[in-house]
Amino acid sequence: MKHIGLFLIIITALFGCKNASKQITISGEIKGLGTDTLLLYGLDELYDRIDTVYVEDDKFSFQTDIDTATYVALLFNDRTEYPIFLDKGNHIKIEGDTSNLNRLHVEGNIYNEEFTAFQYELEQAGLSSSKAIEEKAEAFIKEHHSSFVSLYLLDKYFVQKDEPNFEKIKSLIDVMTGVLQDKTYIEKLNEQIAQAEKTDVGKYAPFFNLPNAKGEKISRSSEVFKKKNLLINFWASWGDSIANKQTNRELRKIYDSYKKSKYFAMLGVSFDINKQQWKDAIKKDTLNWEQVCDFGGLNSEATKPYSGEQLPANILLAPDGKILAKNLQGAELKKKIEEVVAEAAEKDKNDKKK
């Protein structure tokens, strides 16, 4: 019996050590917080939850378990968020002041110290332009190619843009070591880039065949679009309402100008999932040109190559399906359409003379 008791004590101790090695502690003091509630949420799939952190007299302490290194965001009530990098067994200490929540001092592992130093360098340099900050972020990634901070900076300054430069993003991924490249985030990002490259200017637009409101299948090569330059607008009723409104106003003007044209047509492709909401949006915004949707949302296989775009988006196709332009707006879009229509009319005129 004594041997069994000793065995149980050893097993209990081993399990206790195992759990302790997973545990992390986040504590801090941020002057001016008083009594408050903060949120801690994951920035990658390794921390797929939201936790509440309670603050009393400017101070807080929080414990949880993690299986591997990851990073999270500490979200304040004014919507400011600050990244915290975590690894098993860490004791993270945070200090700062509510007067500058973008300049916290975080200790507990090398990643937090690297990010704190990066933020301090930005502040000391007095950088305000996005280009200058991106240059600093790029330099950091190239110098710290195995740091989790590099993943965060890649996402914040290069991926989360209205028009990401995928060539730049690929070049930055290439300098990262395998430990970062093996992360699910990078794998998904590479998939997104591969899809986006299918719709680069100069390439032929990926084929799709989607139903309109009558159930008729429509594609870019449908009879109604033959021999015409085609402007395809990608949108969703659940998208940015202000952007949708502004874009639809421009599109209505274009449609009214070219609805009888022999050389130009328009097609709306929606990422909606609710048929009634789609129909209501078409009616409300007077989208009188052809509209199609299979209600697969962003997961639709038919429109997957286009799902990485910031909605609303557009592509302009030549009659043979080659992509002439992407995501032009306002005067630029109007000018480009005028050019391709004029070229098509001139070509038609010359062909008739032959």
From TrEMBL:
Q: Name one Pfam family in it.
A: AhpC-TSA
Q: Name one GO biological process term.
A: cytochrome complex assembly
Q: Spell out the protein name for this chain.
A: Peroxiredoxin
Q: Which domain of life is it from?
A: Bacteria
Entry keyword set? Cytochrome c-type biogenesis, Disulfide bond, Redox-active center
Domain Thioredoxin, residue spans: 199-346
Matching entries from Gene3D superfamilies are given as: Glutaredoxin (3.40.30.10)
| PROSITE patterns the UniProt entry points to | PROKAR_LIPOPROTEIN, THIOREDOXIN_2
Question: What does the entry list under GO cellular component?
Answer: cell envelope
Supply the InterPro entries for this chain: AhpC/TSA, DUF4369, Thioredoxin-like_sf, Thioredoxin_domain, Thioredoxin_ResA/DsbE_sf
Q: Where is the signal peptide?
A: none
Where in or outside the cell it occurs: the entry states: Cell envelope
